[in-house]
Design a protein that fits this description.
A: 469 residues, alpha/beta, disordered N terminus, B: alpha/beta, seven-stranded mixed β-sheet, globular
Chain lengths: 469, 161
């Protein structure tokens, strides 16, 4: 059997004994057709002593990796998995394509499974950025990649779900850390760097360590003008910036069941801010409704077994939760809004893959309608679709009439490259996901909050409780 | 390998290593000119080949940008030793051949200390304080990639072997 699998391939046996189970041996093979590297990993997990009693008791991640690696994958196992969908944007595709070229591979493994959205610096801000983007466009054309979403289509993590790529049970790997957003649809979405992405471009496969899973149950009801971002920041405060490192999180409870798809995307988007490898909401009727008519193909939802093995269980009750704010310079530096209310604000940013969706613009528009902002306010819809619908519903008029500035769909100032970078010591209330030192300009101070809190702060010119405006 | 220590704290994020405005740079040497620009402006000018970065927990958290480890490779940092690393940064560093060691005792190491690091055994000798620490070495599989200079070179060698 082995000789059949590894026919015409160089086999490297790597003694990669799993430190927990000491049971596994992984074989790597690199095929070499036509003298060019295809980086085809062929992997078989040889496990003479697999725990048969555990077989039906798996987490969502274990089930997705079992299918993708054609093995009985358990937390702690190293597997080589088939990637269902790969994404790289203008910011990361440059290095990924560079690495791909260094591999001397001629063609990508499957053009239809690669998605390239341009969102980080769009439209290009400098000659350098323009030339790099030009090169990627040519590469996409040359490779025959059909799913290219150029300037103005929106942020990768909004575009993939809108276009039906984010499906339950899928393994979706993005060259962007917020690729965990796809977990909102029951997918295993995770981020990697450029060389890993090049490896996927070449072979469609990548090695993973199957993560342990934290089971997070959130009960309770959120008050008016308290939203998914507040719940998410509250959770991050509880778990910490590295409390979920290397782990997946599964979300349960009435607060999650009642949460909209948009809110679930906000929640899963920030799994990485706790170090998480993935954050997953089990698919339900809301998922079905969202995917109807947009799923790129048929899918099978994956659910955890009730007695699956979780490394940790966390239960939170969010009844009475106040709007939350993450203070500079770490995402887990979270407090109730009243602790920071009154701090002078220089800029408000509403947008990003965390909070640039229709529901977020609606929340902001409701607060801004008929009023005037007291500070410069930058609003950036997450996608062209979001922008069009927000225009249709009158949200954009309300936002612009209030004195805010609208940017083109994309990441905007979130990563500190353009469209609203901060001056030294300026304070910004932002609906984005990171408040690291220097993130949005060298000396800026970032307070992360919900669209409701951001809009209220825009009106007052200081950090404000949205329940009081 | 020997080198002097650049000491950092917990949760050093990739925006601190290389700010987002430099994502349009793609050579290690040019990226190195901006490494730690926002948090340690003197770093790029004063770092010497073979120096060592010491971190606390969650080193390299945040963005998936491979520019971050590339900038440190461009600065000819010999290795990074931290209590723990963020997942994507860990993978990226291995993939480009930048050695990482996990060591619980990084609090004992001070800025400017001279270290002798044996990557294979994980033994760190602090020549300034005359102490030794044991780091968790990389699994053989990952060290093979680092030793080759990164995943691309590793695979080339395997294929041509």
């Amino acid at each position: 059997m082995i000789s059949k699998v590894f026919d015409n391939k160089i086999v490297i046996v790597i003694d990669m004994f799993n430190t927990y189970l000491k049971k596994m041996l992984t074989l790597f093979a690199f095929s070499k057709p036509t003298g060019k590297y295809t980086f085809l990993y062929v992997n078989k997990t040889i496990n003479s002593n697999r725990r048969p009693e555990l077989t039906p008791l798996a987490t969502i991640s274990e089930k997705i990796f079992s299918r993708a690696s054609k093995s009985d994958a358990r937390a702690g196992d190293f597997v080589i998995a088939d990637v269902d969908c790969a994404m790289a944007h203008d910011g990361t595709s440059v290095l990924a394509v560079k690495a791909f070229r260094e591999m001397e591979v001629q063609k990508v493994w499957d053009p239809a499974r690669i998605v390239i959205p341009f969102d980080h610096i769009v439209p290009a801000s400098t000659d350098v950025a323009a030339n790099l983007q030009h090169d990627i466009r040519l590469w996409v054309q040359q490779q025959g990649i059909p799913n290219m979403y150029d300037v103005g289509e929106g942020i990768c993590h909004q575009v993939l779900p809108e276009q039906g790529f984010a499906l339950p049970g899928r393994l979706i790997v993005g060259a962007d850390s917020h690729s965990c957003t796809y977990g909102a649809f029951g997918a295993f979405g995770t981020g990697v760097g450029a060389t890993d992405m090049a490896e996927i471009f070449a072979s469609g496969r990548l090695w993973f360590r199957v993560p342990q899973t934290m089971r997070i149950t959130i009960e309770g009801k959120m008050a008016e003008r308290v939203s998914a971002k507040d719940l998410t920041l509250h959770l991050i405060k509880h778990i910490g910036a590295d409390g979920a490192t290397y782990k997946a999180m599964e979300y349960y409870g009435t607060a999650i069941e009642e949460m909209s798809i948009s809110g679930r995307m906000t929640l899963c988007n920030m799994a990485i801010e706790m170090g998480g490898k993935a954050g997953i909401v089990p698919p339900d009727e809301k998922t079905e409704v969202f995917l109807k008519g947009r799923a790129i193909d048929a899918y099978t939802p994956v659910y955890a077994d009730e007695a699956a093995d979780y490394i940790e269980e966390i239960n939170l009750d969010i009844d009475g939760l106040a709007p939350q704010v993450a203070k500079p310079h770490s995402v887990d530096n979270v407090c109730d809004v009243d602790e920071v209310a009154g701090i002078n604000v220089d800029q408000v940013f509403i947008g990003s893959c965390t909070n640039g969706r229709l529901e977020d613009l609606e929340a902001a528009a409701r607060i801004l309608k008929g009023k005037k902002v007291a500070v410069r306010t930058v609003v950036i819809p997450a996608s062209r679709t979001v922008l069009l619908e927000a225009i249709e519903r009158g949200y954009i008029s309300s936002i612009i009439e209030a004195g805010a500035t609208l940017g083109p769909p994309g990441c905007g100032p979130c990563l500190g490259a353009h469209l609203g970078v901060l001056a030294e010591r300026e304070v910004c209330v932002s609906t984005s996901n990171r408040n690291f030192k220097g993130r949005m300009g060298r000396g800026g101070l970032l307070y992360l909050a919900s669209p409701e809190t951001a809009a209220a702060s825009a009106l007052k010119g200081e950090i404000a409780d949205p329940r009081l405006v | 390998m020997k080198g002097n220590v650049w000491k950092f704290g917990n949760d050093i994020d990739t925006d601190a290593v290389i700010p987002g405005r430099y994502l349009t740079i793609n050579t290690p040497k040019e990226l190195a000119e901006h490494a730690f620009e926002g948090v340690r402006p003197e770093f790029a000018g004063e770092v010497n080949p073979g120096d060592i970065i010491i971190g606390g927990t969650n080193f390299g958290c945040g963005s998936s940008r491979e520019h971050a480890p590339l900038a440190l490779k461009g600065a000819q940092i010999k290795c990074i030793i931290a209590k723990s690393f963020a997942r994507i940064f860990f993978r990226n560093s291995i993939n480009i051949g930048l050695p990482l060691l996990e060591c619980a005792e990084t609090d004992r190491i001070r800025e400017g200390d001279e270290l002798d690091v044996d990557i294979a055994s994980g033994i760190i000798t602090n020549k300034t304080k005359n102490e030794t620490y044991q780091a968790t070495g990389l699994p053989d599989f990952l060290r093979g990639i680092v030793d080759a200079g990164g995943l691309i070179e590793f695979t080339r060698r395997q294929v041509s072997a």
